[in-house]
Every structure is written in structure tokens, then in C-alpha cells.
Specification:
Layout lengths: L1 E2 L1 E6 L8 E5 L13 H4 L13 E2 H10 L6 E5 L9 H10 L3 E6 L4 H9 L5 E5 L7 H4 L19 H14 L3 E8 L6 H10 L6 E5 L18 H12 L6 E3 L4
Helix pairs in contact: 4-6, 7-8
Length: 252
């Protein structure tokens, strides 16, 4: 297994931890505002720049040297849960004494269940792309909220999978957060009214402000960030049912 990126130190990706972040490639979503387009579009290693790849041996040589200096490892992407080798990778990381945080879009509940049942995770951060009505559109999968995924596990629709993941995370005994990157041009107040109902009582929920960059998946987009006043209005909506909701990533 190859890792498509390594951030050797982060103070932000894993709350209250000094951590390293591993980036795995490939994603089953095509969120047009995604800033990790290079990871999303790498479905395999064949055409990758060798300088972008780290072998497991390289990763574990690094992690062994950082034992006692780092607290945890964040595994991000792309969508890490697409990788069948993920449980083995995490087991090796935990054997070194690290805590592990997983970033996920929640679309692979069977893998999430395997990781949770195996006590392989200490923290999960799950993206909530939008309210349920707009979910497929904002995830870049088309407009129909009722459409089933061809060949998907047990014939489940996308929202059924997302709901399973939400329920598993909320019923687990580990720390977790849900988060939405808020994009003008994709989100409306209706999204946050629905999310407030959907995630009521959750441990943590963050509204993250969209930031433009050169690696956005849809290069000729017209997306922008909402104003601070608009973000605070959305926050006031979700705080009615998620008291620990807060803003993240606002410009100072």
C-alpha cells in the first residue's frame, strides 16, 4: 500500500494532539469545491509522480522515530475507507502507541463498522456535505436524492449509508465531530435547518468556511465564502439543537 501524502506535523487536524497526517488517494465523491483534487482523481498509483508516494516502510520508519514526540496520526484523503488495507494500516500505527483519527465522508459504513468494532479508532471526523435534499448534488453525484448506487453494498442508497455511519459514530464511545464546508453557490439556509434536525444532540459540529485555492476540483467555479454575518446566522440555526456547534476556518 502506498500513501499519497505525509504531513509530518499538524496542530490542527487532530484536536488537542500533536499529530502527523497521512493522505490516502481516491474518492467516491466528486464534491466540486474539494481542495484535494489531486488525491480525489488518483484512483490508482500507476500514473502518480513517485515523489508524491510513500511506501508503508517509509511511513513507519518516520513514525517510529517520532514515538514520544507525536501523540496521534490523522488518516485523511481522498476517502480512506475505500481502502481494504485500512484496518491493517491502523493496527500497525496503534501498535506503536499512537492514537488514530479518521477523516471520512461516511459513505462506507461497513468499513467504519469494522474499524469501530476492532477498537481501531480514537476519533472520527465525518463530513456532512449538505442537508439531505441536496446531498447528492453537493457531493457531485447528481441531483436525485432517491437514486440508488449501482452495485452498492446491499443496494443501499447514498443517504442510507450516510445515516448508518452517523448512527454508528453517535453510538460509539469515542470522540467525534461532524462538519460542513459551507460554500456560497451550493448551500442555503434550508441546508442548516435540516442539518439541525438531522444531527440534533451530536457531540460536536463545525461550520467550516470555504477557501478558494488552485487545487479546487471544479477549476472554473463561481463559489465563494459566506460573510461572517451569514455564517453566524447559520450557526445560530444549528446551535438550537447542537449546543456545541461552532465556526472553524473563518478569516481573522
Amino acid at each position: 500500500m502506498y500513501i499519497f501524502g505525509l504531513q509530518k506535523l499538524t496542530l490542527l487536524d487532530y484536536p488537542d494532539h500533536l499529530a502527523a497526517t497521512l493522505f490516502l488517494s481516491g474518492c467516491n465523491f466528486r464534491c466540486p469545491f474539494c481542495h484535494n483534487s489531486g488525491l480525489v482523481l488518483h484512483e490508482n498509483y500507476e500514473n502518480a509522480d513517485p515523489d508524491d508516494l510513500f511506501s508503508e516502510d517509509e511511513i513507519f520508519d518516520f513514525l517510529k522515530k517520532r514515538v514520544g514526540m507525536l501523540d496521534g496520526v490523522c488518516i485523511s484523503g481522498g476517502e480512506p475507507s475505500l481502502h481494504r488495507e485500512l484496518p491493517g494500516l491502523i493496527s500497525r500505527i496503534r501498535d506503536l502507541g499512537y492514537e488514530v483519527k479518521l477523516d471520512t465522508n461516511g459513505s462506507c459504513p461497513d468499513m467504519l463498522r469494522e474499524l469501530l468494532d476492532g477498537h481501531l479508532l480514537d476519533y472520527v471526523a465525518m463530513d456532512i456535505k449538505a442537508g439531505r435534499k441536496a446531498y447528492r448534488t453537493v457531493a457531485g453525484l447528481g441531483e436525485s436524492a432517491e437514486a440508488s448506487e449501482t452495485g452498492s453494498e446491499n443496494g443501499q442508497s447514498l443517504l442510507e449509508k450516510i445515516q448508518r455511519s452517523i448512527d454508528m459514530i453517535r453510538n460509539s464511545r469515542i470522540s467525534y465531530e461532524f462538519r460542513t464546508t459551507v460554500v456560497k453557490g451550493l448551500h442555503t439556509e434550508e441546508d442548516f435547518e435540516d442539518i439541525a434536525r438531522w444531527l440534533a444532540g451530536s457531540q460536536r459540529y463545525y461550520l467550516q468556511s470555504f477557501r478558494d485555492c488552485d487545487t479546487i476540483l471544479l477549476p472554473d467555479h463561481s463559489f465563494s465564502a459566506f460573510s461572517e454575518e451569514e455564517m453566524l446566522r447559520f450557526l445560530s440555526i444549528v446551535k438550537k439543537t447542537i449546543p456545541n456547534a461552532s465556526l472553524r476556518g473563518m478569516e481573522p
